[in-house]
Amino acid sequence: MSLPTLRPWLVAAKASSSSSRTASTRLACAARHQSTSASTARLESQADWEEFRAQKSRVRTLIDTFSEYGSTQTDESAFHLRDQLHKPARNATISALLAAGAHFGHASTRMNPNFMPYAYGTRAGITVIDLDSTLPLLRRAANVTRAVARAGGQILFIGTRPDLKHVVQKAAERLGPQGYYVGDRWLPGTLTNKREFFRGQNIEKVKVNPDLAIILNPTNNVNAIREFALENVPTIAIIDSNVDPRLVMYPVPANDENPRAAELIAGVLSIAGREGVALGQTDKIQQAVREERKSRQRLSWRSS
Amino acid sequence: MASSSSLRMLSSNLKKVHTLVSRSRFATRSVHKRRALLYPVEDGVGHFLPPEALKTAVEWQEGLLERLNEEVKGTENQNKSVTQTVINTATARERTLAFNYASLALNNSFFLDNIKPPPVTADNHEDQISNDLLAAITTQHGSLRQLKSSFSAAGLGMFTNGWVWFVSDSKGITGILPTFGPGTLLVQSRTYMGHEKGLHFGDIVPLGRSTQASPTPKTPLSGTFPSSPASGVSSPTSPRLNDPNARLIHSSALAQREILTQPASLYGATATGQGLGTLSSIMNVGETIFPLFCVPVYEHSWMSAGYGVWGKENWLKEFWSVVDWKKASDAYFAAKRSSERLTDGAAR
Fold first, then answer.
1. Which of A145-159, A212-226, B167-181 has the lowest mean pLDDT?
2. Is residue B172 classed as helix, strand or coil in its secondary structure?
3. What InterPro entries does this protein's entry cite (chain A) (predicted)?
4. From A85, A200, B121, B264, which residue has the greatest number of CB atoms within 10 Å?
């Protein structure tokens, strides 16, 4: 870690001027000017680069040594605003949903009558969503996601607004090869007109339909929801108070306009999906072990 | 409606107005809290820190962290760890108080976590010293006993408060380093290290020139060091004059001249490349120094332990019964490997 050089013009002038100074005064001068000629030297050879890396490594070790001590507050325990997107919580709670503003619905005059079971009441002209019903429905949706992922299904996240694009991208990444996302416009006909869309490929062999679709802004994606219904794909969506909850199979009544609520819900669902993927892999391993044991037993019976 | 849409977007804008909203009970930020000790507080740590003294050390730590919390509240460092706070506040003059508290808290935490109550079967933990570290101590300081006497001398020579550290550099050269006040090993311009006269470093390679040997104590310090089975030395050997393997680098004229002719370089490595184990490679502040263990030189430490206000010497003798040599050996091993940690080209 180097301090910024004070008065660099003075340092340069002094360096270029000739003066008869003794070693001690030269040392004192340099210390006063905080000139770090060694550290500002350019890296020229491979050896320089390696020494630079070694020095960086040493400093890193020293910092890591000290990082274990001090207090209980470490980088992991501290609050970061970025964690809402990058490290979401596994379980949602009423207080977290409240803090994210997931309980704000649309104007009461626009409330869909089929939304009535999930509405808590009206305040300031908007419908307040009952989080006591949202939370169990969100958990149910998480269980569905986990089960589909465990069975090896492919899960598609749709969030077609600019603020939702990164949310669905991160969510799909958590599921590895089983996660997909649509962050820009859903092209109508992707499922119902697949022969046209995937013209170059053998449509009998290619799997286009996802096994589960999670939509964060369903009002902008009615085309996609209609296609999923036609192709019998189960759907989960964030349903706001102006939307009919029967639009999708597993509605999650919450505020669909707020990116923070979307991050929370997509986080919960994608973490459940990630768990499902891991469980599916352990299932496969256990299955393989059982098969191996059975085949060994069969061989031993045959030989005996 | 304007009011409803503003309500719906409100929570996403909340972070901009959080300073105006009064803090609720479940919206408090995490604060610095004392780390739990690795041994029970009630029993103290042997004769070195009886329960009263350990309570004082813990009380001091809690007070430092409380004052640190007050200092960093509302600044950019409020969510950072103590180590990161030390690094961030080191260069800022107006944040000196936060730096001082953080540095002392870090040093005290390091001290408390690198001592252990003495085992039931033995007097100390010296059977846990790794062969590597023992070899280094024997080569560089003569024997464990001589190291102890040098360490005590460093502590006794300090007339202000501070810390005495046993350090190693990345090449495995160990030494004793006194630091004053809130000096920290993390930021080299803020180490406030004891200067030449109080500095004792080991020297593996004799440079072929005569460094004047300083006299080591000819008689062992009044029979207080338990004879460790590892050292096998009953009394310190008296060094000959002009011994190239002198353990104590004294403020000889030769050494002083050498220090002053070194190129001034606060953060760069030495340019002279004199090879392993030279005085200049340690004294040059560009070298990274790793701590193995430390001891606070504060009156409250030995007074609360019951040694009285002048009890520093006896208290420092007791220190050796509680030093956790296993941790020191592990730290030494890590220090020697520190240059190789980033060879894979990974960006950190």
1. B167-181
2. coil
3. Ribosomal_uS2, Ribosomal_uS2_bac/mit/plastid, Ribosomal_uS2_CS, Ribosomal_uS2_flav_dom_sf
4. B264
3-state secondary structure of A213: strand
Q: Provide the residue type at A296 as one letter.
A: R
Count: domains in chain B: 1
Decide if A55 is inside a domain.
no
Residues 50-89 of A with CB under 8 A from B: 51, 53-63, 65-75, 77-81
- The pTM of the full predicted model, rounded to 2 decimals, is 0.62
CA nearest B38 in A: which residue? A69
The candidate with the shortest Cα–Cα distance to A113, out of A220, A242, A239, A255, is: A242
What is the extent of the structural domain holding B140? Answer: 45-347
Total count of domains within chain A: 1
What's the mean pLDDT when you consider all of chain A?
91
Question: Which element (helix H / strand E) includes B99?
Answer: helix B96-113
Q: Which residues contact B122 (CB under 8 A, 6 or more apart)?
A: none
**A180 or B278: which carries more pLDDT confidence?**
A180
CATH number for the domain that contains residue A282: 3.40.50.10490
Tell me how far apart the alpha carbons of residues A155 and A153 are, in angstroms, rounded to a whole number.
Answer: 6
Residues of chain B found within 8 Å of residue A38, distances taken between Cβ atoms: 263, 265, 267-269, 271, 286
The domain that holds B179 is classified in CATH as: 3.55.40.20
Query: Chain B within 8 Å of A104 (Cβ-Cβ)?
Result: yes
ipTM of the complex: 0.70
Judge whether A68 lies within some domain: no
CA nearest B289: which of B249, B258, B325, B331?
A: B331
A47 contacts chain B (CB < 8 A): no
Residue A45 contacts B where some CB pair is shorter than 8 Å: no
User: Between chains, do A51 and B269 touch, taking CB under 8 Å as contact?
Assistant: yes
Of B186, B187, B165, B184, the residue nearest B174 (C-alpha):
B165
Contact across the interface for A70 and B105, Cβ inside 8 Å: yes
